[in-house]
What we know:
two-stranded antiparallel sheet; binds adenosine-5'-triphosphate; 10-stranded mixed beta sheet
Amino acid sequence: ASGGDGARVIATLPGDGIGPEIMNVAVKVLETVAEGEGVSLRFEEHAIGGDAIDKTGKPLPEETLEACKASDQVLLAAIGGYKWDNLSSKDRPEGGLLQLRAGLDCFANLRPATLQDELLEGSPLKPEVIKGVDIMIVRELVGGIYFGEPRGFKDADGDRAGYNTMVYKKSEVERIARVAFEIAKARKGNLVSVDKANVLEVSQLWRQTVADAFEADGCEADGLSLSNMYVDNCAMQLCTNPSQFDVILTGNIFGDILSDQASVITGSLGMLPSASVSSPGKPGIYEPVHGSAPDIAGQDKANPLGMVLSAAMMCRYGLNEPEMADIIEDAVKSVLAKGYRTGDLMGASPAGAELTQVSCSQMGELL
Ligand code: ATP
Ligand code: MG
């Protein structure tokens, strides 16, 4: 899937709220770095979310889905806003993202929680506990208890019950485990698989399958280590000793909870990137963790760094251009080290630091 000129095609989906403002910054940064590195990228913009509802009546127009399928990678900014809050749940802007993930078969969610040293005071945890935290959570996204059958409500001996099923097939565990192995190879190589194998059969299968795939793939020879942790212990360790973690591999519900927990310890929502990826060679979706921030939309106040770091993740994991990712991540570190902050970050720096408040577009120019 690439442009006829050999350029790789990036589908850009600015979406709603602050989306267009932060997307502008990310595209500008990517263009500059790609040119410097001699990498050829072409950007093609498409509608999604509330913007697409206004234009076409649907949160994910057919044209957008087809363009994303044909692209090399997808960069998404943010979806949703007050204007569409009254729509029924199936017509809401956010549905566009779920349909896009399903349409691209994105079964793996990558959520880094990385603490920039310059933002130590934004975290609710003590600086000495979180210093140097750099975690990647690899969460299975399309299976487990959120999708398992049977599910529903039923009568239970005159009482009422609601029920869901947590089920994983070996093949589902193997494919998410292999995503985590690849990620771990590009990092420190220390993998922790998180489950509840002391209580759940589905977790026993998960644990065994991960161990077998690790062995079959010769991961030890590639310098990886694998250990297992129960999810309750992991939640505790994320608070008491988060810097022990490198890559956490886990299922859908545990990953949902742990990735939100891990993002809070870094203290800066506007800084965090994420990715939803499929099998190698297929497009993934790269987007910031934060939402469309309708309260500050159109005011040039948004922090574009979560979007910019999502673009860096796309370079590293989607385009296989790690040098571009390094350059972008270093540029982010450098502007923070020089004291430049968007409004949301003004309180998150060590006392006494000399700070300069900048707008979204100014931050883009400084990168
Ligand atoms: P979601 O759309 O995922 O439900 P949400 O409604 O929970 O998200 P956000 O849209 O992320 O929340 O906004 C939460 C708060 O954080 C808002 O006050 C918003 O202004 C602020 N915020 C979010 N992202 C940014 C950003 N990039 N820069 C500055 N402030 C932000
Ligand atoms: Mg919201």
